[in-house]
Amino acid sequence: MNQTNLPLIIQQAAKAHFLDFYDQLTDGHVKVLLNNYDPDTGRQFGVLDFELAVDEVQLLCQLVGQRQFGQVPLSSDDDAGRMVRYWPYFDKTGEPRCKALVLRLEGSYRLTLHDGPARDAAGKLRPVPIQRDGKPGWVGEQIGINLKESDLIKLCMGLHDFITRYASLHPGWLTGLQRRKARPVASEAAHE
Fold first, then answer.
1. Is residue 23 within 8 Å of residue 12, measured between CB atoms?
2. Which terminal residue of the chain has fewer beta carbons within 10 Å of its beta carbon, N or C?
3. How far apart are CA 55 and CA 61, in angstroms?
4. pLDDT in the model for residue 112
5. Confidence label for 4 from pLDDT (cuts 50, 70 and 90)
6. Residues whose CB is less than 8 angstroms from the CB of residue 37 and which lie 6 or more positions away in sequence, other chains included
7. Phi, psi (deg, nearest 5) at residue 66
């Protein structure tokens, strides 16, 4: 069941979860949607989403496809075999919140989406930390799905092919995204 008005790129169904990737490429993102599924009733519930930047998707697909995700950190904030991305926002009442996407390789892959209250951490909004079952976690809702390596590789191949096709049908699209990302940096430097 499509819970957005966006075109579905690819979907992974598991015993009790659906993992969907939607086309939001005109904005430079892929929307990731993860929800619980009750096979007895056919009902989906507990939906969480996250917008992952196209360049992050491309890098992730490259590393997973070459089986290097567990060996190479994706950024200075990540460890090899672990990627965490944050999406801070304010809810309708103006309270700070933060969504997070975490992909871990611990024998198999585990993708977790989180949404909960946020607080300032070194000038950035981050999820409020807590202990969950003796392990570090965050306050709020979270849904996770375990993925076999072969399933994640198939998802990444589908995403890579879709992005490549989109870029070939929209010449200059990727260059335009890169310019939009660089523009705020250039304008900030001019004001210093």
1. no
2. C
3. 10
4. 93
5. low
6. 13, 14, 16, 17, 18, 43, 44, 45
7. -95, 5
Beta bridge pairs of residue 90: 96
The dihedral of CA 42, 46, 47, 49: what is its sign? Answer: negative
Over 4-16, what HEC string results? CCCCEEEEEECCC
Residue 126: per-residue pLDDT = 87
Q: What are phi and psi of 7, to 5 degrees?
A: -70, 135
Instruction: Find residue 32's DSSP bridge partners.
Output: 21, 50
Residue 138 contacts residue 117 (beta carbons within 8 Å):
no
Report pLDDT digits (tens) over 58-69. Answer: 999 999 999 999
The secondary structure element, H or E, covering residue 99 is strand 96-106
> Which amino acid type is present at position 71?
Q
Domain boundaries, the chain: 8-185
CA distance readout (Å), 54 to 28, 44, 121, 164: 6, 27, 26, 11
CA-nearest of 144, 74, 84 to 110 is 144
Question: Would you say domain 8-185 falls under CATH 2.30.29?
Answer: no
Amino acid at 138: W
Q: How many residues does the chain have?
A: 192
User: What is the residue type of 101?
Assistant: L
**In sequence order, which residues have a C-beta less than 8 Å from that of residue 24 and are 6 or more positions away?**
6, 30, 31, 51
